[in-house]
Every structure is written in structure tokens, then in C-alpha cells.
Automatic annotation (TrEMBL):
Listed transmembrane segments: 20-39
Primary localization: membrane
MF-aspect GO terms: acyltransferase activity
One Pfam family cited in the UniProt record for this chain: Lip_A_acyltrans
Sorted UniProt keywords: Acyltransferase, Cell inner membrane, Cell membrane, Membrane, Transferase, Transmembrane, Transmembrane helix
Protein name in the entry: Lysophospholipid acyltransferase family protein
Keyword Membrane tagged: yes
Compartmental location: Cell inner membrane
Organism listed in the record: Veillonella absiana
Xref: InterPro entries: LipA_acyltrans (IPR004960)
Domain of life: Bacteria
Keyword Transferase carried by entry: yes
Amino acid sequence: MGNHWQYNVLKGLSWLVCQLPYKVILLIGAFLGPVYGLIAKKQKLRGIENVKIGMNMNTEESSQLLDELFKNLGRSAMEILYMPNLTKDFIGKHIELRGAEYLDAALQEDKGVIILTAHVGNWEWMGAALAANGYPATTIVKKQPNAQFTRLMNEFREMVGLEVFARGGSEMIKAAKALKKKKLLGFLADQDGYIHGLPVPFLGQESSAVVGPATFAQKFGSPVVPVFASRKPEGGHIVHILPPLYYVDSGNQDVDMYRLTEQCCQVTENFIKEHPTEWLWFQHRWNTKSDEIIDYDKKMAIRELAHEKQ
């Protein structure tokens, strides 16, 4: 209860932002984002180095890309505070769904659908758009360091029609039940997989990739549909729904898991390269080193075998 005032401040700030026209909050966000960039020097420097590798850019080009990224982050921050205004009518006017036929066909398979997404564009508005268009959307969310911010965000998510499973409890059981009920289950799968991940290269660097999407696809036979958001220059967003990926059973589960995880990384990487100013280049995506991954040598042997069979 000691930090409850933070929730009230955020709630009040959200109310103030919601009184403004949408175009005005975008202008404010584009101004405030670079201001934060001046403060977050370590993040910017880390992002520049990752951009240089992932996009094959020089330092000047990478710095310019990060400047645009911070503008977009400012816009997204203001849009998050604006979420109480996300009526179905507003979403219809400002968020365009492209490729909905892929999602509709995947749902027709009657096995639930795993949504593969990333910290690109405004992923919160992406989820709201899916829910507003009648898709039974659920998501597993990571608790933020600030409990009051987490509380507010989950309120906003539920307000726009998302069913939220917070990590740290029985979320995997609830997620499994969601798929059994033929719902969408969203994974932000562009994060570091830590010691339990698979060694999959990502944006030019060795990395540990999360295995959540492939694990659920293997267990339930659910299609994995990549869904990402990008920002329209004039304001608003496009939700890009891409062709589904599948767990293909070759008789070697380790190889099959690796192959689908690698495909998830590749489709995510491709989208980021198409929209490089909208992904969080400074996140700790490559924190886990190769020798920290459990059974690394075995997993590297699986990686080689997966490539031999292709």
C-alpha cells in the first residue's frame, strides 16, 4: 500500500492525456521521447552497438536510427496512457488489420492459435485491436519492477478485452487451458531465453532464444501466427498478420523444436529489419552467453543436425 500513490499519479496522468486529441499526444510523445534518450545514455549506446551489428550500419547511421526509435517510444508511452480511449470505433479508425485471413484460417483448425509477437511498434495497441475485432485474445505478461505500473497496465489490457496471465504463478496452466478453449495465446518472444533457451543467431549475434512458442505448438499442435505492429506516418498503426508457422514432427523432437524456434527468430528478425526504428534495440536480448546455456554442446549438435536435414 505504501506505493499506492504511484498508481493514483499514473491514473491521473492517464486521465489528463485522455482529454487531448490523438494527434496532440503524438506530438507530445515525439518531443518527450528524445528527452528520455538524452537521459538514458547507457541504453542509447548499447542500442547503437546492436544496430551497427544487426543492420550493418556505421555509428552515425545507428545513432540517427536510435533518435527515431526514441521518438516512437515517446509516442507509444503517450498512447499507453491513452488506452482508456480505445473504443471499438476509435480502433476501427486508427488501427488497420492486414492479413486477417491467415488468423481466421488458423482458428478454423480448432487447436487454438499461438501469437508470435515482439517489442516492435505499439504491441499493447496491437493486442487491443485483435480483441476489438472479436478475436479471443490472451497474453502472458512479465511483471514490471514497479508493481503499481504493472497493476495499471493489466487494468488497461483487461479494459480493451485482453485476458492476462501474469508470470510467477500458475500462468502456464492457464495458458494451456486457453489454447484448449481455442483462444489466441500471445508470446512476446523477442527476449533473452536465458540459460534454458536455444542457441539461435539473432540480428547478427549469437543468442539464447525463448522456446515458449515452439513448446506450446509441440504440445497442442497449435499453429504459430506471427503478428507485429508498425506505425503509420500520419498516426495510427498497422497490425501485420503473417502466414502461420507449424511444428513439424520428423520423429526427432529436439531437432523439430530447434527448427520451429529458429523460424520464429527469423520471421521476427525480418520484420524488425523492415521496421528498424520501432524495435527496442537496447533491450538485453543478448545477455546470456553461449557457455551459460544449459547443455550448450548438445544444443549446438542439435542445431547442426537441424540444418543438415533441411
